[in-house]
Amino acid sequence: MSAQPWKVSLHGGHSGRFCEHAVGELQHVLEAAAAAGYHTFGVSEHAPRSQERFLYATEREKGYDIPRLHAEFEAYAKAIDLLAAEFADRLVVLRGFEAEVIPTSGYREEMLGIRERFGFDYMVGSVHYVDETSIDGPKTDFETLLARSGGLEQAAVKYYEAVAEMVEALRPEVVGHLDLIRRNAEPDAKLDTPAIRKAAGLALEAVRARGCILDLNTAGYRKGLGSPYPAPWLLRQAYEMGIGFCFGDDSHGPHQVGEGVEQARGYLLENGVDTVTVLTREDGAVVRRVVAL
Ligand SMILES: [Zn+2]
Ligand SMILES: [Zn+2]
After folding, report:
1. pLDDT band at 217 (very low <50, low <70, confident <90, very high)
2. Is residue 41 pLDDT above 80, yes or no?
3. Cα–chain center distance at 12
4. Cα-to-centroid distance, 96 and ligand 2 (Å)
5. pLDDT at residue 1 greater than cutoff 60
6. Ligand 2 centre and the CA of 271: distance in Å?
7. Inter-axis angle of helices 152-170 and 139-149, to 10 degrees?
8. What is the pTM of this model?
9. How far is the CA of 2 from the centre of ligand 1 (A)?
10. What does 90-114 look like in DSSP terms, one character per residue?
């Protein structure tokens, strides 16, 4: 295979048949990944939610319900098994999923159960919710959270606490978009106050202790944040702690596959990071490798 060994995405590959807010077919996503020159492409479809109250407004409008989310996820697990084998001669495809932290009291059992049941190659642990309120959805939800928490700083502290708890509960191979709390905040918001830095530092300690890889997630560019997730200060702190990074294009359709990865490579190099830590498959087994950029 002539693909560059650093060109790996471990977060993305959502597709329209298995995710209401994505488009396109999974097969076309993988064709785009091969065409983009990826060495390894990890597909991390969203874990199904288990309660009606967590359905998105767009899903409700289209008549989605919880059984449908579960049926589509099951279909995804079957499809990715077949496609990983079909693409094996041109692209290493890893079979993964993106975990949720809802409901707060039961997500650990649900997510570990999904992993076990389908025998996935790896898991992306992501925090999209704080106290069961979405930080990744409509701005109104985010504002509800801020009001309930007593402000942005308190909400951000709670967010990083949730990340640390998730890492301990799920021990995922990859931690998704570490500072997703930026997404709905005002562009000039201060998200590196001493209290936030302290909570983020504890989350990084958990990431290091459990040997997780951080997702260098290019959706930050797409969302107009000016940098990928995580922001430079967090990136440098993680790097100094010896934590590894791997790209994630967070693609939600073939058109987004590979988007921002070359730019994100430059971002790592500018910040003094000259390797990525990837997962790939060798002789049938999933292995972890550190490769030069
Ligand atoms: Zn998504
Ligand atoms: Zn995510």
Report:
1. very high
2. yes
3. 7
4. 13
5. no
6. 24
7. 100
8. 0.97
9. 30
10. T-EEEEEEEE---STTTHHHHHHHH
